[in-house]
Amino acid sequence: MELGTSELSLIIEKVLKEMSKRDIKSEVSDGVFDTMEEAIEAAYEAQKKYSQYTIEQREKLIAAMRKAILDNAMAIATLCVKESGMGRIDHKYLKLKLTAEKTPGTEVLQTKAYTGDKGLTLVEHGAFGVIGSITPSTNPAATVACNSIGMLAAGNTVVFSPHPGAFNSSLTMLRELNKAIREAGGPDNLITSVNKPSLESTNVMLNHEKIGMVVATGGPAIVKMVLSSGKKAIGAGAGNPPVVVDETADIKKAARDIIAGCTFDNNLPCIAEKEAIVVEAVYEELIKEMKNNRAVYELTDEEAEKIVQLVLAHNKEKNTYSVNKSFVGKDAQYLLQNIGKNNMNGIECLIYRAENSHPFVQEELMMPILPIVKAKDFDEALKFAVEDEYGNRHTAMMHSKNIDNLTKMARTIDTTIFVKNAPSYAGIGFGGEGHTTFTIAGPTGEGLTNAVSFTRQRRCAMVESFRIV
Ligand code: NAD
Asked: What is the extent of the structural domain holding 266?
């Protein structure tokens, strides 16, 4: 078959059109670069464009990001668990949904005004520029999504350094957010990262002159590093949240709430109940109520010892323990299988009657294991709780109807989050009032971060004018 000239030119035109489309596509960045220097440079250039955007335009992009998080929540939750080998798909989905629905946008950037005889002074929230954000393996995608909303709402762009153990899930979230921003008419590279995150690339970020602020969400080592960087830093560090139960508590509800909080995402959240401290008068009753839940299994001393050997490494010289990361975020049945107990279908939480000094209490395990400590009274329970929290100033819970006890614990333990008569996650807005975040900054004091945390205050004084009374 021979083609006529006009048919040929039509085909050529079609092919060229396709090719040009492909060219445009390959020029469009998905925000992921080969080197940290390139990722920072791209975010820096993007911030120059983004700084010209109105609040209304920022909100339009944020709305598109929220939709992208929701649309991709199940796929990304699945990817997180597959890649990191930690946590639960159903709960990671809920965290992404919560992020989309309850992470504040620009509405929290409230201007302050002072007026008087001398005129009008405004204090507004300005952007830092480019923020470097380091994110954990335990909650990879929701941290990227939540920080992106807050940081962009504040007018910044962001470069992520995700944990190498969950970088694929983190980068998938990032790509979906960039795609949504582009489709909503926003600039490229508001959110960037590197295709192979490493400790070296994190170090480049911490020392780069174009990074105005650094935010670390992770364990003590990375928080210390950002605080030593010489830049404005937010540190959201480790916790070991205790939950105290006194004799006035609704024991049925306390049992239910504590197990729900402890098992959420296999105990990965930094806010999750890590140990329960219960006054003697209701100790047995609480354990009985917990065991009425068929997902709860009580470990014997022998089984608990086997799990200690499995999940903790003991340095006998220093008498310190370190957590075996290969069991972090694993489900209860997997832990049981590894000590030779099979066919434990439906078990989600392992409880154990422990002394307060037991390593299950003292170490941040991030596994669905709940040690339950007996205290002779509320004062002793509070003393244990304060010891176990280690001054992290992170999270604590209490189940009680005694207002004096609740108030005393809240004041004494001095944590960033204190939850009364509910599972820990009520403290981040899941079943409780208030906004959500997955970057809870105890060490540096911003608390439950939102767009305001990622701004610098700027003052503008107009003398002898603009006052209207
Ligand atoms: P992690 O400290 O191992 O890693 C966190 C991030 O820091 C990762 O991106 C990692 O690559 C980086 N990092 C760690 N050490 C580093 C070093 N020496 N140099 C350069 N980069 C380094 O933490 P994880 O296991 O992924 O997460 C669990 C920890 O994070 C727990 O302690 C948990 O309590 C804490 N956490 C806190 C919050 C919060 O909001 N406060 C939220 C989530 C997790």
From this structure: 242-432
pLDDT at position 7 is 54
Residues 454 and 340 in one domain: no
pLDDT value at residue 22: 39
pLDDT at 24: 37
> Are 360 and 407 found together in one domain?
yes
Atom of ligand 1 nearest to the CA of 442: 41
Q: Assign residue 383 the CATH number of its domain.
A: 3.40.309.10
Give the pLDDT score at 13. 54
Asked if residue 440 has its Cβ within 6 Å of ligand 1, the reply is yes
pLDDT score at 469: 84
Chain mean position to CA 435: 13
Strands 312-315 and 320-323: antiparallel
Can you tell me whether residue 354 is helix, strand or coil?
Answer: strand
| Same structural domain, 190 and 138 | yes
Q: How far is ligand 1, taken at its centre, from the CA of residue 170, in Å?
A: 14
Decide: 136 in ligand 1 pocket, CB within 6 A.
yes
Give yes or no: residues 168 and 300 share one domain: no
Phi-psi region of 74 (alpha: psi -120 to 50; beta: other; left: phi over 0): alpha
Pocket test for ligand 1, best of 138, 143, 207, 416 (most atoms within 8 A of CB): 138
> Which portions of the chain are predicted below pLDDT 50?
1-5, 8, 11-12, 15-16, 18-27
Per-residue pLDDT tens for 128-173? Answer: 999 999 999 999 999 999 999 999 999 999 999 999 999 999 999 9
Residue 439 lies in a domain: no
11 lines ligand 1 (CB under 6 A): no
What residues contact 238, with CB distance under 8 A and at least 6 apart?
Answer: 218, 219, 220, 223, 270, 364, 392, 394
**Which residue minimizes the CA distance to atom 15 of ligand 1?**
222
Tell me the C-alpha to C-alpha distance, in Å, between residue 289 and each of 254, 286, 293, 320, 448.
9, 5, 7, 33, 32
- Give the ligand 1 atom nearest the CA of 163: 9
| Same-domain pairing of 99 and 36 | yes
Can you give the pTM of this predicted structure? Answer: 0.93
Ligand 1 atom nearest 270 alpha carbon:
34
